[in-house]
């Protein structure tokens, strides 16, 4: 009797998930630079484009709810724009991961850098277009860069990272069996995720300083951070044969 035909593999799901980077000092530094770019983007968009968030959709949902209750429909549209762009960015990220898995992270960085280059160019784009473009690129980044080894992280907001930092601190101080392994993993989480959180804070400080001085050209500084991150992890981003 002939063997049943095996189902075709789902694109992007063979072997290591494409959104995973190996956990090394270089990739931790790269993730920190990615987080710095995320903090910069949120600070610049908040200060220059109507007090909305490029990355933190929780804040946009809360502000959208307040605007709805207040019948402030101009503000409603300010917050609907980044939310819609975020959905598109996540969808684009999923497409890149599933159908270009061998070069997904490289391609995601290139698309994000191109989007931010346009956002920072003197094209006199409407504020909503700039916000939407930045939110889309941020969503692409959050979708494409999600794991360092077996540790989940985030480069565009810090809530989950902060939780992981103090999860790691607890495991480091009060490990259960096997004690050595749990303490070691806790120490690694506390260290690596803590550095990434500090990177986000540093990026936000940089964005707050740059926004009144350079305007939308501040987005080009985020591009420099992304370029540096890409150079740090270029071996991990190299297409596999």
Describe the structure.
The protein has helices at 25-48, 57-69, 73-99, 104-120, 127-144, 159-173, 179-214, 218-232, 234-237; strands at 20-21, 147-148, 151-152. With 241 residues, the protein is an all-alpha fold. The longest helix has 36 residues, at 179-214. Residues 1-14 have low confidence and may be disordered. It has a three-stranded mixed sheet, with no helix packed on it. α3 runs antiparallel to α4. The protein has nine helices and three strands; from the N terminus they run βαααααββαααα.
Explain briefly what this protein structure is.
The protein has 241 residues and is mostly helical.
Largest sheet: 3 strands, mixed
Which range does the strand content fall in? Answer: under 5%
Radius of gyration: 19 Å
Low-confidence stretches: 1-14
What layout of secondary structure does this protein have?
Elements: E1 20-21, H1 25-48, H2 57-69, H3 73-99, H4 104-120, H5 127-144, E2 147-148, E3 151-152, H6 159-173, H7 179-214, H8 218-232, H9 234-237
Helix pairs in contact: 1-5, 1-7, 1-8, 2-3, 3-4, 3-5, 4-5, 4-8, 6-7
Please describe the structure with a list of short key phrases separated by commas or semicolons.
single chain, 241 residues, three-stranded mixed sheet, globular, disordered N terminus
């Amino acid at each position: 009797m002939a063997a049943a035909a095996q189902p075709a593999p789902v694109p992007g799901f063979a072997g290591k998930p494409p959104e995973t980077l190996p956990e090394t000092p270089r990739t931790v530094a790269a993730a920190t630079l990615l987080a710095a770019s995320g903090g910069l983007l949120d600070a610049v968009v908040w200060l220059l484009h109507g007090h909305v968030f490029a990355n933190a959709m929780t804040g946009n949902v809360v502000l959208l709810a307040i605007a709805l209750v207040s019948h402030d429909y101009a503000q409603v549209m300010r917050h609907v724009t980044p939310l819609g762009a975020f959905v598109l960015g996540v969808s684009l990220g999923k497409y890149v991961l599933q159908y270009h898995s061998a070069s997904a992270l490289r391609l995601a960085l290139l698309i994000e850098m191109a989007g931010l280059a346009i956002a920072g160019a003197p094209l006199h784009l409407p504020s909503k277009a700039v916000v939407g473009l930045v939110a889309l690129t941020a969503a692409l980044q959050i979708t494409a860069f999600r794991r360092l080894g077996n540790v989940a992280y985030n480069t565009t907001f810090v809530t989950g990272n902060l939780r992981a930092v103090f999860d790691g601190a607890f495991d480091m101080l009060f490990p259960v069996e096997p004690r050595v392994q749990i303490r070691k993993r806790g120490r690694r989480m506390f260290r690596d995720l803590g550095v990434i959180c500090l990177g986000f804070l540093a990026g936000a400080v940089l964005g707050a300083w740059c926004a009144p001085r350079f305007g939308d050209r501040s987005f080009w500084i985020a591009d420099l951070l992304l370029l540096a991150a890409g150079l740090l992890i270029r071996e991990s981003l190299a297409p596999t044969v």
